């Protein structure tokens, strides 16, 4: 692993540089990044959350107490302000003393009276959300409600205080605002004030509880509105109205007059709705379904029955408030569309393809496109200051060195009878390229055949002859610089080419001889094979690749599978497990070091690949990009297994080790993935010290068009990896050759130290992550045995959630682990165990690959019977 940077930087120099840069940084940006980190640190969020809960409770107690003892405390507060707080304090009646009385005096007496009680409720709920990471009640919606409650109550009570002329005794109930505003309204409107106050309540109710979804009958009779007039109508609705008008047949809507809604979602006993849903539809069967559905923030679109084009789709809530949205189809069945990003398994899109473009368009119009990043909405991309600022001196080649080399090249070539017309030098970070135009009549093949002799005569390490230079009629001779430039990771991350790159998976590979940054799109590569003798910069190279991805990608869009048979090379990335790593459901460690686990992981990736291909086929698209676009546009139904697909990058740090211990067992899945996985977003980066043919087999090699080599020990190794010599001539420390699309490019890999990686991982892991690493599909190897009976499920020791899980799958007629996981809020492992138990109990059928298991019990009554028997046993 990285021990020491490029030649010029001795540990001492580096330490000094680091100290200088650190003190420079400290002055300017340290406090900003510290503040950032503090804000996104779990501990500070927890502390703030608990503080807000305490403040919420405190304010509530203080306000209630003030309302009870108000008159007594008013004089105490005045005395404290005018005279001495110390003298006044003992007189206070408020349960929270003088402070409680003073705050309550302002909020209750001066401002809002009873209405002020809305404030502590909001503060408490905000604190709850910060502390527990989820909402007790929909916060945004409730805040709006409470704001209205505060002002309206104050006005309403103020009206009666004014007309009863009881300001001296009762003004504490309406507060100063309520009373004063009523005074003004009375002057302007007289008795009309109460009408205005009543009207305000009416307007609030119709917007807050979305009167548009109350009844079809209402809608039918309401005047037709243009889309510009309202947000609550979708195109379908308007078209329907227009059609009906044309036909002059105001036919009753099915849900009102037609057959009662028949939904496969039978009424279930579920906790009551947190907020009353005003539902005035005369649909007796639909009603319990509404109650059931509204309490669950999950889609309950009947899984097997495509929702037909909905004529009226109305949502009870504006899109951005984070509350589940209830929608109604013309069939009268209701379902909930969850806001994107509510939980890690956010499943916002609620329509399937059969619904048609218009419905998904209207969903997008209402809610905006699905955004996977909303699972971690506050995630901050790493700041560049995490990387060390090594002072860049540029390439250090003196005139003298250049002239010396030029003369030696001229002399050597002349010795072999090669005349030179012209010679140019281009100074790169590690080597200088001398480009030679040979004299007329000199054949390139002659120069090529003399390559080794010329190199020997020039007798410097790492001379590489490029004859001819691709696309030019010239010869290139690369001569290493005496003092090479160290390319820092920071400098390349800051480079515009990287920051502005819009590649799907941008990876920095290095700096070219013309000092340009070379960035590749791993998604297009589509896999990378990396070789290099020990100590030549492979680990640094992998770290550079990972750093570029982490700097550019949101955890929602990228998952890493890290295989590290050497056990220490990638260990640093353990910290970002809950952000970027993917692992097998049953494994403890996200970084895979054990060969058996590697085999399972590779096979699991193959299962993931097959699953993804099935989803692509189902969606009628050809690749991950088209799939995710369709999903983002809410045209794919998560209830049918559709989900946003993050890219998966598999990194294998040492293939040689694995090939020695597991041979074909790893070769086959690697080759399979390399052959097929590009379209579904799984990309491989495989590194090895030993690029021999029994490690990089023909099967593997054929499927890795992009190959990269650091210095290797022999020309044979160079040929194995690059199909040509040259890599043995490299000068080490990140000097490398990239072979891509039959081009061979010499690059200097940037340097990134383990300390920098450590800081980067700390920065990422200090932020809120997912509950656990991204779960790869379960793969049970030979030992596990696929047969449920062999795995001996003990039904006498059932999970406590067994009955609930059974009811869930029977109600939905869908035996899927992810359904159990989402709806019962369980981890993957536990949900997997539950589904195994359900299989053993004969409630669901056996595993069927990417499809959900068949549910063998058809109705809830039958299920209760089965459950009762199990209990009796
Ligand atoms: N891009 C680079 N720029 C400057 N120095 C580098 C670069 N890459 C590697 N080095 C130097 O080479 C040393 C070895 O690099 P690295 O640890 O990446 O080798 P490796 O090929 O992974 O070796 P091993 O396989 O034994 O782990 C580093 O400690 C560092 O001093």
Automatic annotation (TrEMBL):
Family: Belongs to the FtsK/SpoIIIE/SftA family.
Keyword Mitochondrion listed: no
Protein name, UniProt field: Cell division protein FtsK
Residue numbers spanned by region Disordered: 1-26, 241-282
Entry keyword annotation includes Cell division: yes
Subcellular location per the Swiss-Prot or TrEMBL entry: Cell membrane
GO process terms (BP): cell division; chromosome segregation
Entry binding sites for ATP: 532-539
One Pfam family, short name: FtsK_SpoIIIE
SUPFAM superfamilies linked: P-loop containing nucleoside triphosphate hydrolases, Winged helix' DNA-binding domain
UniProt entry keywords in alphabetical sequence: ATP-binding, Cell cycle, Cell division, Cell membrane, Chromosome partition, DNA-binding, Membrane, Nucleotide-binding, Transmembrane, Transmembrane helix
Molecular function via GO: ATP binding; DNA binding
FtsK domain segment(s): 514-719
Membrane topology value: Multi-pass membrane protein
Main location per the UniProt record: membrane
GO cellular component: plasma membrane
PROSITE patterns: FTSK
Segments traversing the membrane: 46-68, 103-126, 146-164, 184-209
The organism's place on the tree of life at top rank: Bacteria
InterPro entries associated with the record: FtsK/SpoIIIE/SftA, FtsK_4TM, FtsK_alpha, FtsK_dom, Ftsk_gamma, P-loop_NTPase, WH-like_DNA-bd_sf, WH_DNA-bd_sf
Species, as recorded: Arsenicibacter rosenii
């Amino acid at each position: 692993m990285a021990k020491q940077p490029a030649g010029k930087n001795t540990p001492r120099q580096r330490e000094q540089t680091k100290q200088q840069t650190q003190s420079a940084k400290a002055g300017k940006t340290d406090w900003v990044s510290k503040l950032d980190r503090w804000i996104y640190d779990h501990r500070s969020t927890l502390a703030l959350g608990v503080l807000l809960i305490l403040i919420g409770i405190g304010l509530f107690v203080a306000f209630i107490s003030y309302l009870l003892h108000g008159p007594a405390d008013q004089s105490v507060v005045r005395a404290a302000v005018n005279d001495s707080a110390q003298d006044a304090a003992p007189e206070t009646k408020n349960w929270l003393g003088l402070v409680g009385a003073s705050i309550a005096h302002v909020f209750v007496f001066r401002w809002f009276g009873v209405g002020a009680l809305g404030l502590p409720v909001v503060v408490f709920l905000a604190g709850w959300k910060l502390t527990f990471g989820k909402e007790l009640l929909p916060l945004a919606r409730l805040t709006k409600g409470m704001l209205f409650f505060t002002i309206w109550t104050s006005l309403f009570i103020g009206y009666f205080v004014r007309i009863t002329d009881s300001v001296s005794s009762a003004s504490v109930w309406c507060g100063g605002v309520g009373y004063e505003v009523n005074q003004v309204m009375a002057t302007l409107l007289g008795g009309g004030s109460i009408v205005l106050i009543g009207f305000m309540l009416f307007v609030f109710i119709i917007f807050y509880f979305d009167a548009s979804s109350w009844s079809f009958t209402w809608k039918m009779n309401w005047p037709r509105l243009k889309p510009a007039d309202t947000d609550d109508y979708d195109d379908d609705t308007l078209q329907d109205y227009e059609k009906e008008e044309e036909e002059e047949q105001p036919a009753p809507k099915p849900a009102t007059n037609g057959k009662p809604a028949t939904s496969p979602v039978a009424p279930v006993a579920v906790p009551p709705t947190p907020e009353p849903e005003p539902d005035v539809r005369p649909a007796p069967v639909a009603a319990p379904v509404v109650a059931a559905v509204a309490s669950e923030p999950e889609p309950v679109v009947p899984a097997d029955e495509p929702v037909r084009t909905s004529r009226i789709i109305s949502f009870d809530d504006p899109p951005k408030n984070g509350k589940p949205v209830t929608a109604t189809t013309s069939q009268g069945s209701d379902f909930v569309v969850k806001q994107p990003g509510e939980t890690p398994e956010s499943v916002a899109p609620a329509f399937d393809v059969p619904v048609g473009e218009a419905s998904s368009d209207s969903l997008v119009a209402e809610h905006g496109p699905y955004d996977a990043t909303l699972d971690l909405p506050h995630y901050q991309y790493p700041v560049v200051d995490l990387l060390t600022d090594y002072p860049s001196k540029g390439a250090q080649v003196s005139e003298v060195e250049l002239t010396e080399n030029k003369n030696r090249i001229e002399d050597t070539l002349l010795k072999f009878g090669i005349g030179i017309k012209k010679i140019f030098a281009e100074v790169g970070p590690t080597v200088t390229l001398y480009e030679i135009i040979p004299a007329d009549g000199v054949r390139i093949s002659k120069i090529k055949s003399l390559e080794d002799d010329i190199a020997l005569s020039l007798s410097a390490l790492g001379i590489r002859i490029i004859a001819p230079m691709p696309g030019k009629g010239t010869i290139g001779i690369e001569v290493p610089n005496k003092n090479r430039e160290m390319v820092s990771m920071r400098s390349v991350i800051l480079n515009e080419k990287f920051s502005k790159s819009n590649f799907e998976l941008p990876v920095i590979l290095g700096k070219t001889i013309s000092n340009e940054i070379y960035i590749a799109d791993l998604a297009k590569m589509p896999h990378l094979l990396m070789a290099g003798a020990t100590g030549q910069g492979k680990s640094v190279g992998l770290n550079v690749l990972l750093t570029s991805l982490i700097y550019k990608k949101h955890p929602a869009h990228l998952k890493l599978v890290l295989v590290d048979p050497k056990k220490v090379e990638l260990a640093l990335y353990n910290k970002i497990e809950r952000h970027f790593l993917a692992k097998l459901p049953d494994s403890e460690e996200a970084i895979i070091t054990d060969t058996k686990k590697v085999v399972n992981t590779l096979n699991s990736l193959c299962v993931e690949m097959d699953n993804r291909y099935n989803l692509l086929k189902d969606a009628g698209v050809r690749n991950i990009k088209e799939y995710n676009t369709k999903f983002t546009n809410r045209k794919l139904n998560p209830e049918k297994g559709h989900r946003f697909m993050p890219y998966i990058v598999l990194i294998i740090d040492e293939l040689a080790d694995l090939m020695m211990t597991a041979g074909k067992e790893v070769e086959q899945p690697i080759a399979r993935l390399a052959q097929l996985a590009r379209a579904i977003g799984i990309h491989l980066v495989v590194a090895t010290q030993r690029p021999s043919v029994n490690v990089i087999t023909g099967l593997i090699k054929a499927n890795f068009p992009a190959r990269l080599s650091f210095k290797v020990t022999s020309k044979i190794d160079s040929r194995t990896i690059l199909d040509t010599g040259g890599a043995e001539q490299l000068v080490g420390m990140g000097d490398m050759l990239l072979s891509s699309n039959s081009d061979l490019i010499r690059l200097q890999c940037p340097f990134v130290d383990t300390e920098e990686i450590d800081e980067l991982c700390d920065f990422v892991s200090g932020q809120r992550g997912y509950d656990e690493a991204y779960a790869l599909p379960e793969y049970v190897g030979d030992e596990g045995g696929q047969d449920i009976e062999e795995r001996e499920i003990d039904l006498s020791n059932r999970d406590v959630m067994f009955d609930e899980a059974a009811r869930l799958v029977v109600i939905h007629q869908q035996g899927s682990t992810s359904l159990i996981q989402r709806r019962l809020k369980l981890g993957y492992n536990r949900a997997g165990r539950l589904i195994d138990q359900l299989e053993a109990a004969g409630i669901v059928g056996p595993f069927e690959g990417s499809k959900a298991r068949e549910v063998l019990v058809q109705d809830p009554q039958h299920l209760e019977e089965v459950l009762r028997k199990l209990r009796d046993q």
